[in-house]
Amino acid sequence: MLRTLRDDRGQGLAEYGLILGFVAVLCIAAIAFVGSQVFAQYQNVSTNYP
What we know:
mainly alpha
């Protein structure tokens, strides 16, 4: 039983999974933030140049 508690072979995979999830959330937030700014610029150009 104690050997099972000290076994950390799956720990690295779990940490990589958490990092991957964090990076995915950051990418989605960046795309949402930048995407709205790009859309606003596109709307500005399309209204000023018929």
